[in-house]
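Q: For a teaching handout, I want to show students what a protein-ligand complex looks like in token form. Below are the inputs, and the small molecule is zinc ion. Please produce the holo structure.
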Amino acid sequence: MSRDGIGLKPELNFDPIRKILVGANFDIDIDYIKKPPYPRYKNIKRCNDKDANTLVLTDLENKVSLPVGLDYSKHSQTGEEVKTLLEKRIEEVQMCTGCIEHSQSTGQVVADANVSCIRYCEICSEQSEVCDQCKREGQTSINPQLRACRNCIDNKVRCSRLAIIAVIHDCEQKNKTAMEKIVEAKMNNCLKTEISLTNVGPDAVHIGKYLTGSLSNWWLLVDDFRINLVILRILRQIDSPTGKVLRDVISLDSVQRKDRQAMESVAEISSKRSP
Ligand SMILES: [Zn+2]
Ligand SMILES: [Zn+2]
Ligand SMILES: [Zn+2]
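A: Here is the structure, written as tokens, with zinc ion included.
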């Protein structure tokens, strides 16, 4: 599962019927404008939700990707809040198809996700092995991520659902803190059992972006040599045997950094292809 900032960006909209602004995280009406304390620019700036993060699921074979949700988050979200949200979303996505079909939904949005899809057994968990009752019911694991849910067992149907193996996230500070907290909880064995098999980590595209930024703005240490994109470009330009070798193996595009989102340039100048 990955969570990144794509999707419709949030904004404020005036509702002419109710005469209020829609989209703010507090009421902005005529009273708010006229009565003290008078609105400050800073407050107004913080009033609407800032980030739109789309939840996208990808299977382990990297063949199917599916957007399953969209979170609007406010300006000042803490790492703890992101962690709580991630845990909630993982649990919701792991709800089984049987429970989804029987849950309340508005349009196509499941309203009571995960409330009824219970896989946890206290006895199994306490004795660290599958209890007699669960064995009779066909359970083979004590881990809720690998068990059938209560409803499916009672209805004698196959419990079919997803197990989130990894959550991939960009490393904006709040997200990084959330991931560190999850890793820490995992090390201390106090992560929620419903997500105990789930790992977290940064995504390759963002690591690549940092590498591009680093190579342009600072020195990178490679094999005990300090390199920098500007140096690489100058060496490539000069009329010398080194310049010729570099011109043969590195294209001009890749050292110009015209397109700051282009990953090909980074891949080209950091590949191991020898002249
Ligand atoms: Zn279920
Ligand atoms: Zn049990
Ligand atoms: Zn089920």
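A: Two things your students might notice: The two ends are 40 Å apart (CA to CA). The pocket of zinc ion (ligand 2) is lined by residues 121, 123-124, 131, 133-134 (CB under 6 Å).
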